[in-house]
Amino acid sequence: MPQSLKSDAHEILSRFGVTATRYTDGSMDSFSPVTGEAVASVTPDTADSTATSIAKAHAAFLAWRTTPAPKRGELVRLFGEELRAAKDDLGRLVSIEAGKSPSEGAGEVQEMIDICDFAVGLSRQLYGLTIATERPGHRMMETWHPLGVVGVISAFNFPVAVWSWNTAIALVCGNSVVWKPSEKTPLTGLACQAILDRALKRFGDAPENLSQVVIGAADVGQALVDNPQVALVSATGSTRMGRIVGPRVAERFGRCILELGGNNAGIVTPSADLDMALRAVAFGAMGTAGQRCTTTRRLFVHADVYDDLVPRLKKAYASVSVGNPLTENVLVGPLIDKDAFDGMQSALSAAKNAGGTVHGGERLEVETDAAFYVKPAIVEMPSQTGPVVEETFAPILYVMRYTDLEEAIADHNAVAAGLSSAIFTTDLREMEQFLSAAGSDCGIANVNIGTSGAEIGGAFGGEKETGGGRESGSDAWKAYMRRATNTINYSRELPLAQGVVFDID
Ligand code: NAD
């Protein structure tokens, strides 16, 4: 008799040292999408307790900001070690709470480990410029300083990686962190904090309350958003959420990283390696049951290869194994909940009304009727109309035929979101056109690799209604620090700006 997900989750949390009352005595249930069962009940924070956490985090920041950056990096190095030791347990908890397959759960934890490695190196590279000055006997430079409390709000679909992308960078930059995970995934939030606590204990002399987790829904997020002691709000989730969070943070002149919805597309040109395109599109569209921000949702296929590629794609869809992601050889797991299922069904009926032909999309009875499993859907559309222009967070791939690449790129860009994009081609001109200033308008533009996923070394994020934020690699760290331009006069003169003579003798 297999162990219940509930006892499995509880055993993992107890191995991490999370006190049982934190996940058994609360008023807010946490459900596993795998079976629909409640696996824990947690105690939500209030606006007051969140404000207390923020005040404590601010006190921690005041001490942490003067710790040398490479030493701060040492904490993140230890955190990476703890994550390596915790990988199997945390990956499994991700699978239980978010419905990911074991390899996806472990893959998410690996992203956490990778960002720690990146951040450790970064802790010795937080450098600014020395800039040529027009004044004799002067030196001008820029320096980067810690910013303050970083408030992280995250979505259910990457319950642990997004926090670590923010936290590893924030910590080496000299900041403290208060994290509000999705109300759908509080347990992984508690587990992550416990893992970081292990690293903090080994590190020894970090200030208390350097990183904290607050549990709850939008109201708790709002308490982070509106608090002037939160210098940076890094919010990942729907564009709907970003529309509220962005203006509220702006109103108090806070800083914001918005990582919002995507409506990602691929273009398959006549010269494409179709075997490669088939695999990349199938994985990009169906992986994680279409619940990645970078999921492939639209596909423009050239008329010359449409009748070759699309039937093969439909075949791949028909044969894909959907089921309990914790069992072997299952590629597509459940939707997160009933709302996600209802959203998918209404998008499919709107697509039919707009002239689309739907293949798949039916609900499958797997496990219990409290869990929502679906056959991934391919919808052949006459043009980019109806629900195609919006993100539906479910496995629906809209496929359209094109004849002119310039028009396909224009259609590709004619949606509100701008996260990830891909072209499949072996033609150098087509590739360069897609990557050029007149090409894809997304934050991520790929060639012969799908839209889904990203390496931590690059800056991650998107344009337009995706929010414009960047996190993770490259120089995304700059959003987590404040920049000062310093001018030093080592001469005996005081040349005034603009040649002004100001004689006060
Ligand atoms: P969601 O917007 O419902 O919730 C995301 C988080 O925002 C949750 O923690 C939620 O409690 C919080 N929240 C909601 N309203 C808020 C408010 N008014 N004030 C403060 N906090 C608030 O999103 P979801 O359903 O959890 O996740 C799916 C969405 O997230 C999709 O649109 C997906 O594309 C997007 N996403 C984007 C990225 C990215 O990097 N661009 C990554 C993952 C997910």
TrEMBL record:
Stated family: Belongs to the aldehyde dehydrogenase family.
UniProt name for this protein: aldehyde dehydrogenase (NAD(+))
InterPro entries assigned to the protein according to its UniProt record, in alphabetical order: Ald_DH/histidinol_DH, Ald_DH_C, Ald_DH_CS_GLU, Ald_DH_N, Aldehyde_DH_dom, ALDH7A1-like
Domain Aldehyde dehydrogenase: 26-483
A Pfam match: Aldedh
UniProt subunit comment: Homotetramer.
The entry's keywords: NAD, Oxidoreductase, Plasmid
EC category name: oxidoreductase
